Every structure is written in C-alpha cells, then in structure tokens.
Amino acid sequence: MATIESSISTNATAFAENRSGMLALLDRVRAAEARAAAASNSSRERFEKRGQLLPRERVALLLDPGMPFLPLCTLAGLGHDHTDLERSVPGGGVICGIGTVAGIRCMVSASDSGIDAGALQPMGLDKKLRIQELVLENKLPYVQLVESAGANLLKYEVQHFIHGGSTFRNLARMSAAGLPVVTVTHGSSTAGGAYQTGLSDYIIMVRGRSRAFLAGPPLLMAATGEVATEEELGGAEMHTTISGLGDYLAEDDRDAIRLAREVLGHIDWPAGPSAVARPFKPPRFDADELLGIMPMDHKRPVDMRQVIARIVDDSEFLEFGENYGSATVCGHAHIEGWPVGLITNNGPIDNAGATKATHFIQACCQSRTPILYLQNTTGYMVGKAVEEGGMIKHGSKMIQAVTNATVPQVTLHCGASFGAGNYGMCGRGFHPRFCFSWPNAKTAVMGGEQAARTMAIVTEAAMKRKGGVDQAKLDALQAQIIQRFDSQMSVFSTSAQLLDDGVIDPRDTRSVLATVLAVCRDGDARQPQPMQFGVARP
Known about the structure:
The structure is a single chain. 41% of the residues lie in helices and 17% in strands. By secondary structure, it is α/β, with parallel strands linked by helices. The strands form two sheets. Strands 1, 2, 3, 4, 5, 6, 7 and 8 form an eight-stranded mixed beta sheet that branches. Strands 9, 10, 11, 12, 13, 14 and 15 form a seven-stranded mixed beta sheet that branches. The longest helix is centred in the N-terminal third of the chain and has 29 residues, at 13-41.
C-alpha cells in the first residue's frame, strides 16, 4: 500500500489560524459539557445528605477502571432552554455512552438526577431513543441507572407522552432480541417511568431510596382517596419481598453498582472479533496536526488525504481510481489492524466521482469491508455540462448504493456538508451506524451566502416585474438569510438536535473510530439467542 506523504507545513500562518480556530470551537464544546456537569454537581450537598452518589459518580463506579468510555450526544438540547448558547445546559437530562462493565462492552445510560430531579427533557427523549437504536443495531447489553421524577408536568406536551412509549417498546425489543437489560433503580421511577424499571431483565433496588409506582401518594389520593406512604406504595423492600419487581436489594448506591457489575460479570456474553488484536502501526504523523488542517472557511480547499494520513495505520492508503473523478477520494486502509474503506471529497462531487464512489461502495459490500465517510463537500456539481452528463442519474446511483449498503457505515463531518452531498456521503438521514462531527463542521442545504444570493436573484426578478427594485429591501433579505443559515449550520445547532452522535476532538478521531468500528464488527458477528417475548417478571 502507498504511504501518504505529508504536505502540511505546521509553521505556516494558515495552519496556525486553523489550529487556533479549531481549539476555540472545541473550548466552546467542552464549556457546554462542563455546564451540564456543574449543574448536576450543584446538587451534591442534597445527595450526600441522602447518602447517595451523584449520577456521574455512579457511572464512573460502574465502568471498568482504565477502560475507555465514549460519551454520546452530549450537546443534546443545547439552546432549547431558550438561553443563549454560552449559558445553556445541554444533555437532555441523560448521561449515556459506550463503555466496559465487568469486561463486557455495554451501552450505559444514567438519569442526570442532579438536574430537575432527573426529569426527562424533550431532547432527552430523542437522545434515549437514539441510544436504544444503537443498542438494538449493534447488539449491546444495556445498563441503565434510573432516578427520575418522570415527565415535567409544567412542560407537558402530548407528543412527548406518545413518543415516550417507544422507549418502553425498545426495552421489550432488547429483551426479546437476547440483549440483557440491567437496571439499577437509585431513586424514583414513577408513573409511565415505572416501566423503565419493570421492562428490565435484572432489577437492583436500593433500600430506603428506590421508589417504583404507577401513581405516587399525591396522585393516588387525588384519584382514589387512598392514603399510603412512598415506602408502602413502592419501596425497595416491598418490591423485593412482596411484589417481585426487584431482584436484588442493595444497601446504598455503591452496593447497587457492585451488584450491577456482578450481574454483568455472570452473564455468559461472548467476546466479539475485536477481542482478537491484530498487529498495526500508528499513523506516521501526530494527531495534533489534525487541528490545523481544516480551514474555518469551508470555501478554502483542503486535501482530505492529509486527514486520512493522520487517522489510518502507518498512514498507508490504497487509493481506488485515483485518476478518475479525482475530486472524490476512495480507497482502502486499516484502523488498528482492521480493514476499512474510506470515501471523502476535495470539492463538489462530479459525474465521475459519483460513479466511482458507487462502484467502491458496492465493492466494499462484496468484500464485507466497513465504510467510513469523511464528509467535506459543498454538494454535487451543477451546470449545463454536468446535467447533460447525467449528474442526477449518477448522483442517484450513489445514493442508491449508500442506502442499500450491506456493511456498517460510519460518518464523520470534517468540514462542509451541503446539499445532496450530505445524502450521498451518508448523512444522518441515511442511518449510518454512528455519526460524529468535528467542532468546525457545517451542515446545510447550501452555504448561507449562496442561499442569500439565490433568493436575492429571485426576489429582484419579481420586483422588476412589478415595476422597480428596492435595493435596501434586497440587502436586508440577504443579511437575514445569511444570519439564519449561519446560526443553523454549526455543530452547536446540529448536534443539539441530535443530527450527529456527538462532537469529538479531532485528536481523538482515531480512537473514536476504532471503538465504533469494533462495536459494529462485534455486533454483526454476535448471534444472541432471540426469544418470541422478552423476559417477564414472575
């Protein structure tokens, strides 16, 4: 295989400007994540008085020491609380990610009960649905740490109630698919949320703290006039001795986490192919250089081979069809010893590029090679010549191939992702197994200036038909459109709406990709014993 040579001058002014811009954006991402942790940590005194651990402490105690944890969807809901982005608290009230528990790679979800008592936020529901989708698609055990006051009735919206039922449906589907669901109920699990506990295969409850009931004392009194304490109605001791809802009775949070780890440790969960290490060499270039490669202005060109060189093993890349459709770059490489096909772009996708990518996708499916898309394109080429050459036809072939690919597809937004280029490069709407973004990534139907100019041309023509052009009105229209597009195309908007699975530090790209490709590989190889129905309580 050919080794990619570096053409990056780390002493150049452009490199320094790119690096500075990327670090500034990354600081904003980390600051937003830190606000969520700080908001939860503000409840520390209350948790300590109750003898409880904070949600992030529970997650840390659950995970195997020294093993990596990949947080997911950390910016969910950013700005949805109607505060400005620099003060908004993201996360949706849920902490989740992929980590190792008792030697088993699992999806972990925890109610962030330090914020609003763990009440699920609107984007928190979408976040839970996304991680459950990942569990089912990648055949992962699911560990959930539950402590939630349920829905916030002051923010009640009927659609959230209806779609919330999908989270319970997914728990039942996991169990029936042979994917263990292990739940620690640290505190309240109320009303419909009680089924979050009830639909689990293994349930651990905490003495004096766990509460699970369909109607709490206030609602019970309002509905029937019956008077009961929380402990009588749904305490841990009642459920582990009388109702049979709980399987294990823990003395406190630490004991509950210990029991969860023991349950996972005793499940005969087979190791996947990724447990067998393959020899590999790291990239020849420092991952830190990824900070300075991508320009902050998407109109400035960049050779994506330089990104590939800092991600793949030994910076080796066997390019496919190098001299045909050269703006679209396809080829084979390895990440931590495992083969992967890569597709990216050094500009718009033309007829030849679309045809080449289609061929390459089909070849990867034939050889069962996962595909990694590094998105950096302003879209498909436009113009009379390319239309005559069949741009729509060739672009449609590429989209057909992406849609029906039979191998895992992973997408990373490295730069621009505009127009149908987002679709052809396996954007979120095409259901890649995982989808991540760098802090500088921008996603939109087109660039803001292009959209503004397009609308100005249309509006100006309409004005002329009516007798005159109002230039001030045209200028105001263009400024409004540019502002609207710019505010929606950044990762602080797209990731907040779960249009990716998280914003990652470019320096972490290789480790993140190695993790999710291993998850995909193991999931596809795993054949857990399916059942007609999930595990039912006695």
